[in-house]
């Protein structure tokens, strides 16, 4: 059998469990769907050694005083929130209808409204924290449609589903990379908005403190904000105790100084959110990659 066909079959088998749980999720009431995915997330992160070790390693690095019981408790909540968010994201057509679950506050929202009324573009920065996709839904609901950047997936079946899903949150959607960056800049210069999740390891990034540890961090959002005179607004989507309601907090825009200082401020804002709600951050990223 040709290697391509082997690979294609392997990818189909790899994607099948995701398709099955999403199909089941779609026929369940929203609250019960959340319970199911929350439980699945807890089981995966606690019983998949690689996932459990990565979360534990990150928690021990950032919070060395935590007991084993506290680490396990946070790890379960991380699994629950991650599964909830990913399920909502992969069923974004349905989540788009849940506008009543989202509330918002903060002066950054007024900054963005002013930019929109002036025909000025804007950059929203956030992290894989809480229900990050709720940010774009809320902005779209308020006539501020916001694009996003995503990383292509190796599995063609997952790639098609993911790309189709995130388009429900707003357009344009561009793939990370050279041509994508050019498209994003053009959109911003025309007065468009883009939301960027900036908490992942960046091979070309600068060593900047993140949760007290040096981490390779992209300075691109700050550089674009400076070059094109755009507001740079941190926004965080905090999942509430009931697991369904989301509180968006639009923070004060980052003051324009220089790219390193501004990126330090972004990392400090993200770090403060994670320290307050460590269970809502995606600890499965290899954030402090030393390679």
Supply the key terms.
291 residues; alpha/beta; 7-stranded mixed beta sheet; 11 helices; 9 strands; 53% helix; globular
Gap between N and C termini, in Å?
A: 36 Å
Outline, from the CA principal axes?
globular
Q: Could you give the order of strands across the largest sheet?
A: 1-9-8-2-5-3-4
**What proportion of the residues form beta strands (DSSP E)?**
15-25%
Q: What is the domain total for the residues?
A: 2
What is the typical, i.e. mean, pLDDT? 96
Query: How many strands appear in the DSSP assignment?
Result: 9
Give the assembly state of these chains.
Answer: single chain
The secondary structure category is alpha/beta
Q: Poorly predicted ranges (pLDDT <50, ≥5 residues)?
A: none
By DSSP (H or I, 4+ residues per run), the number of helices equals 11
Q: Supply Rg.
A: 19 Å
Largest sheet: 7 strands, mixed
Helix content: 40-55%
Order of SSEs = HHHHHEHEHEHEHEEEHEEH
Written overview of the protein:
The two termini are 36 Å apart. Helix 2 crosses helix 4. The protein has two domains: 91 residues, no CATH class; 181 residues, no CATH class. It is globular, with a radius of gyration of 19 Å. 34% of the residues are buried. The model has no long low-confidence stretch (mean pLDDT 96). The protein has 291 residues and is an alpha/beta fold. Strands 1-9-8-2-5-3-4 form a seven-stranded mixed beta sheet, with helices on both faces.
């Amino acid at each position: 059998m040709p290697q391509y066909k082997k690979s294609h079959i392997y990818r189909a088998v790899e994607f099948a469990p995701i398709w099955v749980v999403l199909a089941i999720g779609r026929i369940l009431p929203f609250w019960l769907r959340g319970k199911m995915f929350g439980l699945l997330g807890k089981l995966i992160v606690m019983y998949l050694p690689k996932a459990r070790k990565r979360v534990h390693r990150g928690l021990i690095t950032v919070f060395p005083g935590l007991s084993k019981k506290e680490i396990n408790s946070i790890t379960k909540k991380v699994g629950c929130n991650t599964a909830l968010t990913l399920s909502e994201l992969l069923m974004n057509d349905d989540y788009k209808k849940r506008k009543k679950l989202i509330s918002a506050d903060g002066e950054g929202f007024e900054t963005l409204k002013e930019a929109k009324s002036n025909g000025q573009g804007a950059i929203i920065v956030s992290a894989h924290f809480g229900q990050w996709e709720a940010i774009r839904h809320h902005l779209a609901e308020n006539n501020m449609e916001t694009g996003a950047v995503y990383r292509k997936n190796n599995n063609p079946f997952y790639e098609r589903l993911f790309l189709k899903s995130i388009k429900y949150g707003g357009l344009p959607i561009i793939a990370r990379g050279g041509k994508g960056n050019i498209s994003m800049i053009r959109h911003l210069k025309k007065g468009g908005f883009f939301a960027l999740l900036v908490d992942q390891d960046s091979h070309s990034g600068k060593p900047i403190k993140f949760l007290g540890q040096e981490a390779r961090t992209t300075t691109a959002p700050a550089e674009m904000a400076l070059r094109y005179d755009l507001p740079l607004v941190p926004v965080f989507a905090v999942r509430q105790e009931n697991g369904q309601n989301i509180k968006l907090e639009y923070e004060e825009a980052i003051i324009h100084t220089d790219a390193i200082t501004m990126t330090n401020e972004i990392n400090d804002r993200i770090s403060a959110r994670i320290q307050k709600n460590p269970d809502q951050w995606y600890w499965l990223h290899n954030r402090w990659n030393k390679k």
